[in-house]
Amino acid sequence: MYQKFTNVLSIVLRCSGYWPMISSTKTIFKILNYLLRIFNLTVFLFLTSIIIGDAISNFDDLSLITDNLCFLIGCFEVASKAFKFTTEYKNIMLLIKDIYEPFDMLRTMDNLEVMTQINSLARFEIKQASILIGLVTLLVIARIFGADRTTKQFPVRAYFPFDSSTSPRYQLLYLAVSYGVIFIDFSLFAFDMVIVVIMRYLTFHLKILLANYRHCHVKPIETIDGNLSSDLKVIGKYDAITHANNEDDDDQKEDIENFVFFKLNNEDVNKINSFDWRLKQCIMHHQKIVKMTTILNDCFSFCVVIQIMASTILICLNGFQILLANNDTHLFLRRIMAIFIVLLQLFFWCWYGNNMSTVADALTYNQWMCGWENEFKRGVSNSVTTSMILSLRSLELRAMGLVPLSLQTFVSAMKTSYSVLILLLTVVEN
Prior knowledge:
The protein is built from twelve helices and two strands. The protein has helices at residues 4-15, 27-57, 62-87, 89-108, 112-144, 169-214, 231-242, 275-324, 329-361, 363-368, 380-390, 407-429, and strands at residues 398-399, 403-404.
């Protein structure tokens, strides 16, 4: 269940032409994927060119230029993220595999405690995505059906070097522009959700690591059979987890109260009560998380820069359009909705980035409190030192390695938007 939403996003990106089909796909679908890529790229270039043409033809009108920029910035954001998602496809797929593979192991290990929390997180994820899809759909509908077709307007401001008001030319162009609007808005949704999902489950990895560091101290284990259950027992319990009542989600315990074994070989059965063995398992897991965070930054740090810049500018430009609106209720409502969605978009990035860094910051404390002072076995001090050195690595998503995704970044972006908006209003008044 926990991979359901990620699989849906992957299908959307493949059907949109951003990602190639997997090697086992039939040839006909690979050809369709290639044709869709060409078609969507053509629509994208067509849409951006007519908006740029309108901006150039009205270069002396600041209000019209900012109106064009409101959608052009979104087009630039899609192009930038599409470039990274396409060029980093293999690394992104590797990262997703590295994140979900340990959860698959936990499922086979019959870890009821952790799997319950993971599936609860997955259910919340689907509910959250449904609400966001509804908001994006409302914005798209407002733009597409809000255009005044009696005066031959389009969903976006557009310039054509020919007469676009004649029938059926107008209807065909309107359909093409509408498809472009849908493509742009839902592409942004898919890109952002992939990154948010990765950060969400990477944060859960960190929570498991924190719990394991806390539970490195030896506890007697009643039976080994609980960890090495039969296939039928695993299937039965996992089925119970998957079909758990959604109403109980809020009552689930957030803290993991036992040491989490991702893999338990026969030769490790007699070592699971050993502090040294448990600490080494934590260190290996920690190293994997450091590797995953490095890939995360390599793939998406540029996208963070684009997201912060685009959100800051869009909030400013839409606010500027609201202040200049002359009793146009539809334009006012559409701009308010656009600002709300852009704010929500940036807030999601910063919220999950902040959660990830907050959990990572607790690593040092949990390592120190793992009970190492009660262990006198030779080599334990070296393992503790190794784990502490790993905690010095920054485990957060940063914009080009400089600005971390945090709530403070969100507030700073809001302040910058306000400052630029005041500057634009000053220019108009003068």
